[in-house]
Design goal:
This protein is α+β, with helices and mostly antiparallel strands. The protein is 36% helix and 26% strand. It is elongated, with a radius of gyration of 17 Å.
């Protein structure tokens, strides 16, 4: 079994009103130096070893991200048993 993380973010050229709202709130809180905020989504999936990278990419592209306005990145962690062996 592996853990898969899919990060979905608005494309750089797409306006991000939620990120802008967070940036303005930070300024009101007195936090200085934050030049930009982009808000996205994170999905964590536990998948069987039989699920291929290609299938995960397809899931992200068709279900998790709106690829017209969002980019996504799929990160696959080593199966739990392999992570334990690496220590």
């Amino acid at each position: 079994m592996a853990r898969v993380v899919v990060n979905v973010m608005p494309k750089a050229e797409i306006l991000d009103p939620q990120g802008q709202a967070v940036q303005r709130a930070l300024a009101r809180m007195g936090v200085e130096g934050v030049l930009d905020v982009r808000q996205g989504k994170r999905f964590e999936l536990e998948v069987a070893d039989s699920v291929s990278r290609e299938e995960l990419e397809q899931v992200a592209q068709t279900l998790l991200a709106n690829t017209v306005i969002e980019d996504f990145a799929v990160e696959v962690s080593a199966p739990e048993r392999e992570q334990g062996e690496a220590k």
